[in-house]
What does this fold into?
Amino acid sequence: MKYGYYPGCTLHQQAEEFDVTTRESARALGIELEELDSWQCCGAVFPLATDAVINLAAPFRALAAAYEAGVELVTVCAGCLNVLRRTNNLVQNDDETRDKLVDFVEEDYAGEGRVHHLLELLRDEVGFESVSERTKRDLNGLRIAPYYGCLLLRPPDEMEFDDAEDPQILENMLAGIGAHPVSYPLRMDCCGAYLPIGELEERRNRAAVAVMRSASAAGAEAIVTSCPLCAHNLEQCAQDVPGAEMLPVLYFSQVLAYALGLDADSCGLEPDGLHAGVCEKIGIGEVK
Amino acid sequence: MKLTRHGLHSEMIEKIERISGEEISKCYQCGKCSAGCPVAQEMGTLPHRVVRHLQLGQDERAFEAEAVWFCTSCHTCESRCPKGFDLSRVMEALRAVLLRRGEAPVRPEDLPAELFAAAPQQAIVSCYRKYVS
Ligand code: SF4
Ligand code: SF4
It folds into this structure.
C-alpha cells in the first residue's frame, strides 16, 4: 500500500539519519512511502490554548493535502505524530474549529484521513514476525533501552499509540530484530522537552539525566527513541553531568534498517565515534 | 489575606477557563499531578499550588509562579488526575496570557548561535511556540 510520507522539518535538516533509515526500512518491508508534494512544519507542539486556531493551520494543510492525494499519512517523528494526530481528532470533533480552518486554509477537510506511525504499520500491517523474517543481520542481543517519552503516548485517549501505561511496541520490534529490549523505570518519563533551550539554559536538565541514569543502571548498551528532541536532550546529558555514564542514543529506525541490511554508514552508525561499543557488539568494523 | 467571593470569580479566572477549556474549581487539590510531574523539582511552586492560587482568586500569584514556564506540557498530570482535570492546558493558558501581554521569557536574539547548529529544528520551533509568541 502506498502512503503519504510526512518527514517533518527536523528529519529534513538535523536528523537526516532518521529520515534515510525510515525510508530504507519501509522500502525493505514493502511499504511505499511517497513524500507529500508540499508540506510545512507542523509547529512541533500541539496548541493547548483552545483559541490558538492559527497554530493548527499547518498541520491541517498537511492532513488535507494527504486526503486530497488519496493517501494515508505516515510519520516517524514523535512531535509530528502528536501534532498531526491531535489536529485530526480536533477537526473530527470540533465543528467550530474545523469551520475556521476550512475557511482559512481553503481546503474542505473534516478529518477523514488517518495518520500512522511507521511502527504501527510494522505491527498492524506487516507484522513483527514478518519483519523478523526479513532481517539480514542479527543484532546479537544488543541490550537496548526503548525510550518512549511523552509525545507518542500522551494524551492516551487522543494518541491511542499502544498501551499508554505499558507500551510494548518498541520492545517487540527490537526483540524481532535480535536485540534484547531492556526494561527500566523511566522509559515513559519526560526528557525535559524544550526546557533546556528556553528556561533551563545554564541549568542541568535533570529530567534527561534521570532517564539516562535509569537506562544505564538497567544495563542497557544503547537507547532508542522516535523523537529528535528526546535524542538531543539525552545526548546533551554528557555536557550536563561530566563523567556520567553516557549511552549512545539512536533512532529506532537506525537499528531496524541495519538489521534489514542497510550498510552501517548509511544507517549513521559510527564505529570510530559515539557508537563504538554498539558497533563492536553487532559486528560493524569486522566485516566490511 | 482576605478571601472574598469577588476574588474567587475574577474576570481573569474566567479568561483562563475560556482559554484552557478547564473549570478551575474541578481540581480538589489531591496533589497527584505534582507527585508525578517530571520537573516539579525545578518549579518553586508545585503545579497543584498554581491551580490553588487560581481557585483562591490569586491570579497574579499564579502568573508569577516559575512553574508556568517550567511546565513541559508532558501531559503526565492530565493522564493521572483522578478528576480528569487537564492541568497542562491551564499552564498553557497562563503562558498564553503572559505571551499576549508581551511578557515573553525568551528573546530569539539572545539565543546563542551554536544552538541553531546543534539543536533539532523541533526543539527550536517548540521553544519559540512556548516562550516567544
Ligand atoms: S491531580 Fe487533578 S485533582 Fe489532584 S491536585 Fe492535580 S489537578 Fe487537582
Ligand atoms: S504537563 Fe506540566 S505540570 Fe503537568 S506533569 Fe507535565 S510538566 Fe508537570
Remarks:
- The pocket of iron/sulfur cluster (ligand 2) is lined by residues B 33, 37-39, 47, 71-77, 87-88, 91 (CB under 6 Å).
- Chain A touches chain B through 43 residues (CB under 8 Å).
